[in-house]
Every structure is written in C-alpha cells, then in structure tokens.
Design a protein that fits this description.
single chain, 518 residues, mainly alpha, Growth Hormone, Chain: A, 3 domains
Length: 518
C-alpha cells in the first residue's frame, strides 16, 4: 500500500514559527522578570507585605488557572485569532503595568498579563502541530520551543537587572511592547488560522478548572513559602475537590475541555506525568541554587543571575542532541537516558558544601539541566503528536498546566525537605529568625559580636547546604522515577504516521485562507 508523506514545511512556515517564539520568550520571561525590580517597586508604590506577594504571584496565579480554558477557546474560535487577542492584551497590560501608580493597579495589570499569557502559551504550541506535519521538522520545532521557554525563564532576572541599572522599574514591562506590536503585524500575514471546532464552549467546565487550579497552586506555594497555615491548606483541599468534580464532568461530555481518553493514552499521559516530575525537580531546586549563590557565595543579585545562565549551555547542547538520537533509536531510551543524566547532575549537587568551588555547582547544574530539557523536549513532542489536530490546543494547555502543577509540587516538596533539614540543624540558634531561614541567621549574625557572628554564620551556611544536598537528592530520585516511567511505559511507542490522513486530514482553515502548504 502506498504511503503519502506529509508535506514538509518551507520558509513561510519557519518564518511563522519565528513569529510564535516572540510571545513565548516574553511570556516565560515575565514569570521571573520582577525578581530584581521588586525593591524599586516597593520604594515607589509602597505596597504592604501582602500586596508585595500578590505583585509577584498574580501573574503565574492567573496564567496557571486559565491555561485549560484558553486552550479550549483556541480550539473553538481559532488559534491565530487567540494569539492576536492575547498579544493585544499582553501589550496593553504591559504598558499599564509600566506606569502603575499604586500597588492595586500593578496587581490588576499583572492579572491582565496572566490572561494574555494564558491566551498565548497553548496557542503557540498548538500551532506548531498545524505548521509542521512532517515529524522530523515538528520535533525540531518542539525542541526549539522547549529551549526558548527554558532560556526565557532564566533570562528574566538578567534582563531585569540590566534594565534597572539604566532605567526605572517600569522598563521591565515596556520591553514587551515592540515584540507584541511585531506579532500583531506579522501574525495575520504568516500564521494559518486553525479552527477545529469542538462544540459550544462549556462555561461551567471553565469555572471548575479555575476553581481547581487557582486555590491549589496558590495554596501549595504559600505552604512551601510560609509553612503550614489553615487557609492555604483549605485552598489546596478545595482545589483537589473541584478538580475531581471537573474531571467527573469531562467524562460525561460529548466535547470535553480535557479529553480523558487522551490522558489515558500512554504516549500522552505518561509524557505529561514525566514532564510534571521534571518541572518539579528543576523549579523546586532553582530556589536553593539562587540562595546558594547570593547568600553563601555572597554574590550580588545580577552577578548571581548571570552565573545561572551558564548551565543553559548544557541545554543548548543536549536538547538538539536528544532530538537527533531519537531519530535513530527508540525515544523511550533517549528520554530515559536524559532523565538519568539529569539524576546524575542532581546527585553531584548532593556533595555541595559552603567551600565548594563555583565551577563544581555550575557544572553539576549544567548536567542536570541538559539531561532534563533533552528528555522534556521529547516528552513534549510525543504528547503533541499523540493529540488529534482538533484537540491540539486543549492538549497543549493540559501539558502546560502540568508544568504549573509540577512547579507548585516541586516548591512544596523540596522546600519542605530543605527547611526541615535546616531547622533541625539550627535548633540551638539564638533567635527564631536564625532557626527558620538562612537570611534570618545572617541578619542575626550581623548584630552579634564578631566571634559569635562568624560562628553562627558558618553554622547557618552549613545547615543550608545540608538542606540543599537533601533537596538535590530528592530531585535525583524524581528524575529516576521519570526515567523508569519513560523506559518501561513508553518503550515501543511510535509517533503518529507521517501521512496527512493519520494527522486527521487537512488542517482546517477559514474560507479563502491559504493552507501554507506546498
């Protein structure tokens, strides 16, 4: 039987892909771009402690809550249309955030940025499915997508630090405007409109997904940051209950917002789970690495941020290498190998001490980041290929929601372990602040006589690195779990056929719209 090969993407498709990478880079940067700007915001707007936390958290809070709903919207109204709306909203919100004159206004504009980001993120990944029917090209595109998203999160603090040396804090938002304007101009010219349909939009399911994601993610973050408290614990419980109700409703719907049958497929469900574990390990551990550079090695924030870019070299090498290997051997072996390499990098970090040379921690970080992103790239591509084209937006949204849940899970798990090790080692410290955190111990040491202060500082740095070592060991264990999932449950799974029919036929476009094929 003759097999029809999928058409290969040309210059137009790759130009369209380049346009899609603009919002991806900026949306991922906005997760961390405020880290250095917050002290300047505090001087100007004078937010309360609670408002300051909401300024930081509101963006990711709204982003995580709306991903599933926005993925479903894109499948129904058109993914290009949603990209354009998201870009317009993101640009307007960035301008408003830059010139906010109160803490309340900045919190509100950060929420609008989250809505715009939620519109952009699933659409960028889903449109890759429409632009690249050839699997090798799609694998390359997903590799670039994953790498740019990872690098964008790392670049946020660096860009923020550089801008704040020359401009006021609002400049960290204004850098979004040129890219969003360019996207608004080029998207109608280069991006195909993909409107698979899928029935009427289910507002009740959208509300249930919000009620599940928002309190759960925020509650876990607060528990990881501040320890147990009744309100965030209730929020987590409520989120879990709403999540169960949401999933029950999806089972009964003809056109569900989340396709549970798709989640039941190994190629998709296991890829989502492996990515969740990977994100949990890397996000949860990033807090320890940042504190280690700034508080133990006494680096200035911008210097520390620049050094954290060094492990990105491992990402830039490993991600494309993993894609090449996956074309020659079973991808489960490549994914499993990537997670094992990452586990080795984390295992190296269990040996970090206050006296360890900088190169050791950075090398180990490069090893774990390279292996992790190489495996995650293949998991993203496998999951995207498993989803039918008409569900690509929703599938991408669930995949990215898994990232948000993984980040919250990692912060809670590793933060709790690190804090437990630290507080146990510092049980005899002179103040409660010194017993709870490294920063509290360093502040206490500065107020003590020199000999006592040096002794407390040394003990606190050792206790913190002991906690870092345990967190790294836990991350290594998570990577081994992800490797086992890949090796035993994804073995032998092939990507979808190259034929257009297997891809669900032609890509739906609006009447008169060119398909951009051939």
């Amino acid at each position: 039987m003759q097999t029809t090969l999928a058409p290969r993407a040309g210059r137009r498709e790759w130009a369209a892909f380049s346009v899609l990478m603009l919002p991806l880079l900026l949306v991922s940067m906005d997760v961390s771009v405020l880290y250095f700007a917050l002290p300047y915001v505090g001087q100007d707007l004078q937010p309360s402690a609670t408002q300051q936390l909401w300024i930081l958290d509101m963006y990711s809070f709204v982003l995580s809550g709306l991903l599933i709903a926005m993925g479903s919207v894109g499948d129904r109204v058109g993914r290009r249309a949603l990209v354009i709306v998201g870009a317009a909203l993101f640009g307007v919100a960035s301008l408003a955030a830059a010139y906010s004159d109160s803490a309340e206004m900045l919190i509100a504009t950060r929420a609008l940025l989250g809505i715009g980001g939620a519109a952009l993120m699933p659409s960028t990944l889903a449109l890759i499915r429409a632009l690249f029917l050839d699997e090798k090209q799609r694998a390359t595109a997903v590799t670039l997508w994953t790498t740019i998203m990872t690098v964008g999160i790392s670049l946020g603090p660096v860009v923020s630090g550089v801008l704040l040396q020359h401009f006021w804090w609002g400049s960290v938002f204004l850098i979004n405007l040129p890219a969003m304007l360019l996207l608004l101009v080029l998207a109608p010219l280069l991006l195909p409109e993909v409107r698979p349909g899928g029935g009427r939009f289910d507002w009740l399911s959208a509300g249930l997904s919000l009620a599940a994601m928002l309190p759960f993610v925020q509650g876990v973050k607060e528990l990881a940051r501040d320890g147990y408290a009744p309100l965030p614990a209730v929020g987590v419980t409520f989120g879990v209950v709403m999540g169960i109700v949401f999933l029950y409703r999806q089972r009964r719907m003809a056109h569900p917002m989340v396709d549970l049958k798709l989640l039941g497929q190994r190629a998709y469900g296991i890829s989502v789970l492996a990515n969740l574990l990977a994100i949990g390990a890397t996000v949860g551990f990033a807090v320890f690495l940042s504190q280690y550079l700034q508080s133990v090695l006494e680096m200035r924030p911008l210097t520390a941020a620049l050094w954290t870019l060094v492990p990105a070299v491992g990402v830039l090498i490993a991600a494309p290498l993993g894609g090449v290997l996956a074309q020659k051997v079973d991808r489960s072996y490549v994914m499993g190998g990537g997670f094992i390499v990452s586990a080795c990098g984390f295992a190296m970090l269990t040996q970090v001490t206050p006296d360890s040379p900088l190169w050791y921690a950075l090398t180990a970080s490069g090893v774990y980041a390279g292996g992790l992103v190489a495996a995650m790239t293949l998991a993203n591509e496998l999951a995207l290929g498993a989803a039918p084209p008409e569900r690509a937006g929703s599938a991408a949204a669930v995949l990215e929601s898994g990232h948000e849940l993984g980040a919250a899970f990692g912060m809670a798990l590793l933060g709790t372990i690190g804090a437990a090790v630290y507080t146990d080692a510092m049980s005899g410290a002179p103040t409660e602040a010194a017993r709870e955190t490294l920063s509290g111990a360093l502040a206490t040491a500065g107020a003590l006589p020199a000999a006592q202060g040096d002794s407390l500082r040394t003990a606190a740095e050792q206790a913190f690195t002991d906690g870092l070592d345990w967190a790294a060991g836990t991350s290594s264990g998570l990577m081994i779990c992800a490797a086992l999932l890949s090796l035993f449950l994804l073995r032998g799974i092939k990507r979808s056929s190259d034929s257009p029919a297997a891809e669900g036929g032609h890509v739906p476009v609006q009447p008169g719209e060119p398909s951009y094929r051939g």
